[in-house]
Amino acid sequence: MSTHETRAPLNTRPAPGVTPAATDPGSPGSVEPPRRKANAPRRPGQGRAGKILLGLLAWCVGLLFVSPLLWMLLTSLHAETDASTNPPSYFAPLTLESFVNFFGGGNGANPWPFLINSAVAAIVSTLIVLVLSTMAAYSLAIRRIERWSDVLFFLLSTKMLPMVAGLLPVYLVAKSFGILDTWLLLIIIYSAMNMPIAVWMMRSFLAEVPVEVLEAAELDGARLPRVFVQILLPLTAPGLAATALICFIFSWNELLFATVLTSTAASTAPVFLTSFVTSQGLFVSQVCAASLIISVPVLVAGIAAQDKLVQGLSMGAVK
């Protein structure tokens, strides 16, 4: 008797007349792909009708958010007498009179100094905030300092103070330094106003950067400035774009400090909008035209940074 065990051949075939046992689809030894059960529930929007309904819902929500802009555009293309009627005359003749008045034609004031003041204050303050918030976020997310959570709470607590509460102290300090109605004062105010939210945003973006990449760069002899320029900035470009756009929007739309701390030399575009409210009444068509034109820089910046903005706002959402 042989001591070796008898093994069955690998390619065994069933005997004639014998039906092989059926293999359950989806089992480990099954060749066929698993099939969905007939009574399995579908996910919401999985069917054709669900996709159509979701598409219609998305269009309705989009039109709901765009409808104020469309109403402003239509009103700005009407004469002042037609735009001031109640209810508005939507089928009145169209004219560009309000846009001509905005750019200084007719009896309108010159808006370019106000637009330039807003652009300088918003752009310069945004650049300052990006530089300072990135360095602060680096020390809070990667090279953590002691009691870094207390620093974050302190930055957040500064946003809890109403802006009007700090208006009088800021005015007195600016008056004592002789910087009232200047670009410098607006840049300082806007930088301080946007710094807390920028630090919080940049810290969340820098926390997503793998520490191994930075350690490898340090082992290769790269110093901190080179690590910032060649590694951190490219990896956090979406976050930088999102932070820059939000800071720019907040600075461009700020009205309270610009109204109180400026008079003529450094007045901004939102302050210029208040000039349409006079003792003679509210010029609806001119206000709509001015609001649309003043909103153009923000819309252009949002469209230009659309891809980076979506990536930046979604960074850290999925682990």
Automatic annotation (TrEMBL):
Membrane topology per record? Multi-pass membrane protein
Q: Where are the transmembrane segments?
A: 52-74, 114-139, 151-171, 183-206, 227-252, 283-305
* Positions of the UniProt region annotated as Disordered: 1-45
Q: One Pfam family from the UniProt entry?
A: BPD_transp_1
| GO CC annotations on file | plasma membrane
Q: Which UniProt keywords apply?
A: Cell membrane, Membrane, Transmembrane, Transmembrane helix, Transport
InterPro entries in alphabetical order: BP-dep_ABC_trans_perm, MetI-like, MetI-like_sf
Cellular compartment(s): Cell membrane
**Biological process annotations from GO:** transmembrane transport
What positions does the domain ABC transmembrane type-1 occupy? 115-305
Source species, domain of life: Bacteria
Family label: Belongs to the binding-protein-dependent transport system permease family.
**By what name is this protein known?**
Carbohydrate ABC transporter membrane protein 2, CUT1 family (TC 3.A.1.1.-)
